[in-house]
Amino acid sequence: MDIPFNITKVSKEEYPVILAVWEASVRATHDFLKPGEIERLKPLILNQYLAMVTLACIRNEGDKIEGFVGVAEDKVEMLFVHPAAMGMGIGRALMEYAIHCLGVKKVDVNEDNGQAVAFYKYLGFEVAHRSPLDGEGNPYPILHLQYRN
């Protein structure tokens, strides 16, 4: 495995930066969300969800975080890349790190996020099953993907 980026840990003090990357990425990729969903989720991400995962990130030459992955057990719980850095291989590098260094075998993805679904399938994930509602009971169908090596 040859990851062309330096992947580092994220400190709790960097959570506001991580949240900003998350928000920019979600605004660029999650056009299916209802108005107000992002604002509703921001405090949950910042104050609860980030502390529940192992976070790793890729930074640019200026030490600014460009993308991050959050892993719990053998599952990617979050993967977000700033829109200005999309298409540079950051998401793929973070996923390869998660698979090969953190033992990831699963990821959930919004069915309506076609670009992300295609990305995970390209990396070797396949749909294991589908849920009509997201983890909060909202009508955003989730695809549960399994890594097939």
Automatic annotation (TrEMBL):
It comes from Echinicola strongylocentroti. Coiled coil: none annotated. Residues 5-149 form the N-acetyltransferase domain. InterPro entries: Acyl_CoA_acyltransferase, GNAT_dom. Keywords: Acyltransferase, Transferase. GO terms for molecular function: acyltransferase activity, transferring groups other than amino-acyl groups. This is GNAT family N-acetyltransferase. Gene3D superfamilies: 3.40.630.30.
